[in-house]
Amino acid sequence: MFVSSARPSGATILHADLDSFYASVEQRDDPALRGRPVIVGGGVVLAASYEAKAYGVRTAMGGREARRLCPHAIVVPPRMSAYSQASEAVFEVFRDTTPVVEPLSVDEAFLDVSGLWRVSGTPVEIAAKLRAEVRERVGLPITVGIARTKFLAKVASQEAKPDGLLLVPPDRELAFLHPLPVRRLWGVGAKTAEKLHAHGIETVADVAELGESTLSAMVGGAMGRQLFALSRNIDRRRVVTGVRRRSVGAQRALGRRGNSMSAEEVDAVVVNLIDRITRRMRKAGRTGRTVVLRLRFDDFSRVTRSHTMHRATASTEAILSAARGLVATAAPLIAERGLTLVGFSVSNIDRDGAQQLELPFTEAVDTVAIDDAVDQVRQRYGNAAVTRGVLVGRDPGLEMPLLPD
C-alpha cells in the first residue's frame, strides 16, 4: 500500500471524473450521436448525455419516464466491454500522471500530485495536461477539481462539470463552499436534505453556523458529526492507493415495473444477483460474513438492511439464505412503497478466502463442490450453460454499477 506523504499546505489533491461516462463512450464511437440527447439503457437509464440531462433525464430513472421527458432522445443498448476498456485506458493516464491514484469507481479517482511540481509543474498545469491526455488518448471529456482536501476536490469537480477544471485555493475554501446547497455535502441525500430544509437550513453556510450537538439532534449522531466537519472543510483523509476491495456487490434497477412485481419475481432478481456476486467472490478467492441489502422505492427513499453470518463464506446457498431473510424483513415496505431498485453486497471480506467447514463435513463439502463444479462449467461453456430453475425463462436483467446512496 502506498500512502501520500505528509499533507502539504497547498491544493494538491485532484478529483478526476469522466463526464456522463457511458453516454460519452457511445458518442465517441458513433459520430451521429454527438451533440444529440443519448440515453444508455432502455428499461432503466444507466447513463444520459448532457443533452438529455438538460430535459431532466437522470441515471436510474425509468426508461418510460425518460422518454416522456425527452421524446427525441436516442436510446442505445449498453456495451459494458467498451466501457471497461475505456476505463482501463483512462486509469492508465491517471497512473502516468502520478503514482498516488485512489480509484472510486470505473470513471472517477482521486490523485495526489504533491511533490511533483519540479517535474510536472503546478497542480493546475498537471490537471490541464491530464485532461488533454484523456481527450487525446481515450477520446473522452473529463472534469478535474483541485483542492487541499478530498472532499473539496470532489465538490470542485461537481461544480466544474461538464468538461471543466476548477481550483479552490486554500485561502478561498470557505468562500467557495459556504454558498453551495446542502446537497453538496457528502452523505446528504434527499431525506437528510428534507430534514435540514424543515429547519430552514438551505446552504452549507447555514450548516456551518450550527453546533455539532444541534446537527446531531436533527440528523443523528454520525451524520451530525460528519456535517459539522465537512461544512468547515475538515477532512483529514489522505489519497491512498493499493486499497483492496472491502465488499463485493451488484444491484439491479427495476423501473416502474417493480411496483407490480410479485414476490416470486422479486425472489428471482435476488437469486440472480446473489449468483453473480458469489461467483465473483469465488473467482477472486474471497469470502465474506456480512450481507447487506439496499432497496430504493418509488418515492426515491432508500432502506438498508444487513445480516452478519457466524462464519465467512462464498457459498451461494449460504449467502442466498441470508439475502432472502433480509428481503423478508423488508417485505412490508416493498408492498407499501413500490420497489424500483434491489442491491446486495457482501462485506467483512476475508482476503485469504478462508472458509470454515462445519459438521456434518459431508454437507459442507458437498456445497463447496457444487459451487466449484458450476463455476467450472460456466467458465468453459459460458454463464448460460447452467442456471437456477427459478431463473429459467426469466429476463436476467441488466446489472447496474453500484451507485452511491
From TrEMBL:
UniProt GO molecular function: DNA-directed DNA polymerase activity
Binding site for Mg(2+): 17, 107
Site for Substrate discrimination, residues: 22
Family annotation (InterPro entries): DNA/RNA_pol_sf, DNA_pol_Y-fam_lit_finger_sf, DNA_pol_Y-fam_little_finger, DNA_polymerase-Y, DNApol_IV, PolY_HhH_motif, Rev_trsase/Diguanyl_cyclase, UmuC
Record field: catalytic activity: DNA(n) + a 2'-deoxyribonucleoside 5'-triphosphate = DNA(n+1) + diphosphate
Domain UmuC: 13-189
EC number, as in UniProt: 2.7.7.7
Chief location category: cytoplasm
Subcellular locations according to the entry: Cytoplasm
Lineage: superkingdom: Bacteria
Active site: 108
Family as reported in the entry's similarity comment: Belongs to the DNA polymerase type-Y family.
Name of the protein: DNA polymerase IV
Gene it is expressed from: dinB
